[in-house]
Specification:
Helices cover 57% and strands 3% of the residues. The protein is built from 11 helices and 2 strands, in the order ααααββααααααα. Strands 1-2 form a two-stranded antiparallel ribbon. Helix 2 crosses helix 4, helix 6 packs antiparallel against helix 7 and helix 7 packs parallel to helix 9. The chain is globular and about 55 Å long.
Length: 287
């Protein structure tokens, strides 16, 4: 009976030989050792430069538009006179511009309706508001009341930084007005922003929001009733008003503001309303 051949002796271990299969964690452990975890307490690296703002109305970039951003964009187009009074705001067209559903568009239009910038007619749709003559006079009357209080609050508590901010705004007004290529609607919006900035400087956010809403409605009124207001005159009056505020004479500052608003109202042709030409909605929003 033959014996079984003896098993060969195991070869001596070679330190340079690859690891056996029964040590599968060796190489992954080595890989983890070469990739240390970031230290959570280490401050993040500051970006080298701020990223450029994204154009809000580019069709290819509006896929994530929110209801608030759509409402804000439409309000800006109305204030800048790209969407004149009476313009039909077609939901289908707006949905294509912003790449959103009609549900979002309707919600944005509801927000604008609350601010009286648009009006919704049953079974017809939503249109940019066409303020009546009576409404125009009422809006300016309310502005005189509210902004008189704004002026008193500003004179009583304005800081040096508040004055510097408004002085900077006036310098920007003047530099913009010197540019002959600047569109009239941009000039008017810039002049209206002075009143909003003045209200914001009081620290009363409710008052500032009311003034902002009324200034926006005044833009509609000026568009509909064809204001002959000279923007250079308005900017000069802003500078004179701020000079009076610095003197601390609140009554004189209030009188200056009331006179300024009365002159703007007087520049409106409230006795003759002319129908504005309908603009192409998509082109207006992408302008």
């Amino acid at each position: 009976m033959s014996r079984a051949a003896p098993s060969p002796a195991p070869a001596p271990s070679d330190p340079n030989a690859p690891a056996k299969a029964n040590a599968p964690q060796a190489r992954p452990a080595a890989r983890r050792a070469r990739a240390p975890k970031p230290v959570t307490g280490e401050p993040p690296t500051a970006p080298s430069a701020p990223s450029a703002p994204v154009a809000p109305r580019a069709e290819g970039e509006a896929t994530q538009a929110s209801i608030e951003s759509i409402a804000r964009d439409l309000a800006t187009a109305i204030v800048e006179k790209r969407l004149p009074p009476g313009t039909w705001l077609r939901e289908e067209a707006l949905g294509r511009v912003y790449s959103v559903s009609r549900t979002k568009i309707r919600a944005a239009l509801v927000m604008l309706a609350k601010d009286r910038l648009i009006e919704t007619v049953p079974d017809k749709g939503s249109f940019v508001s066409r303020p009546s003559v009576q409404e125009a006079r009422e809006v300016f009357a309310v502005r005189r009341i509210l902004e008189s209080e704004v002026v008193r609050l500003f004179v009583a508590q304005a800081s040096r930084a508040d004055y510097q901010l408004l002085e900077q705004h006036i310098r920007f007004e003047r530099s913009t007005l010197k540019t002959s290529t600047t569109a009239g609607h941009v000039q008017e919006k810039l002049l209206g922003d002075f009143h909003v900035a003045l209200a914001e400087a009081t620290g009363n956010q409710t008052l500032a929001q009311l003034v902002s809403d009324l200034v926006a409605r005044c833009s509609l009124i000026a568009m509909l009733y064809h204001s002959s207001n000279d923007p250079h005159c308005s900017s000069g009056e802003h500078a004179e008003f701020l000079r009076i505020c610095k003197s601390g004479d609140a009554d004189a500052a209030v009188a200056c503001m009331v006179e300024h608003l009365a002159r703007i109202e007087a520049s409106l042709a409230l006795d003759s309303e002319r129908a504005d030409r309908q603009h192409d909605l998509v082109k207006a929003l992408l302008a």
